[in-house]
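Lab channel / #folding
Pinned by the channel admin:
"Please post every new chain as: sequence first, then the structure tokens as a reply. Keep commentary short and put observations after the output so the thread stays searchable."

First post following the new format, from NK:
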Amino acid sequence: MGFNIVDLQAPIIPGKSIGGFQLRENIQVYEEIILNFPSLKPSISEYTPLLVEYEIKDTLVLIFNIKWELRHIIAYPNYKGTLFGKIRMGMEISEVMQIDNRFTFDDFDEVYYIPELQGLVIDTTLDEDDVEVVDRIAVFTEEVL
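Reply from TO:
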């Protein structure tokens, strides 16, 4: 498997994939990329020490569980792919809500999600004009650990 698996314009598919990386795959599937991609360095998750993260700077984070299965993928601002063919990084959350009004804000986790759709959250930040914009989109399996 070559570097062509990393597609920074691939669609974001809730509960399935981002950037050509597929949830639930074993780390061995991506071994060549991880070993040869200069910016992919492992780190222990700050939230759960049983998870190992690999980051493509400002673009993607891959999180593997203790069984080395890919359980969480986070797209960051440099990621160019879209969610539902329209939602992209840097988009105002008000635009997101016009595209899909099922998004609900979770006060506890401070993210947007669709209650009936597992494996997807959108995180936001304030831009220079104090407008809430999409900063991260994450897909994950229900059983993160």
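NK: The CA atoms of residues 39 and 107 lie 34 Å apart.
TO: also worth noting, The two ends are 26 Å apart (CA to CA).
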